[in-house]
Write a structure and sequence with these properties.
single chain; Multidrug-efflux Transporter Regulator, Chain: A, Domain 2; 7 helices; 2 domains; elongated; mainly alpha
Amino acid sequence: MHMNDLISIGQLAERTGLSVSAIRFYETKGLVTPMRNSGGQRRFLRSDIRRLSFVLIAQQLGLPLREIETVLSKLPKNRTPTQKDWTGISKAIRAALDDQIARLQRTRENLDGCIGCGCLSLKKCKLYNADDRASAKGPGPQYLLRERSEID
């Protein structure tokens, strides 16, 4: 590995927009693994820019950090990930994103009716939850979170 392939934590922070403390947090989670130079300073692979950028994007998409950790653990730690590596990651999170998109679409479609009924309570709502059928599936706005067929 060439020294030009390594960057300081400050350079990584500048390139990703993350604070140094956030990078250290992600380090504790195993999302990046720095090396140490002879003076004990952290040095990161340039490819960690892409790795942390992925973390930021995945979090904005609503993926939990635990799931991001699992997915990124499949990337190689001793070399720069290839296009094939990243394609595998993309496939791994596709189902979670599809589920989230479906939940958002259901919420968008049902929200006007729920708010429009005036009660603002899925426990009492005669329109969406007659006889409180959704309570058997757990707390919260079940008809907004799940397919109605999963509740009825």
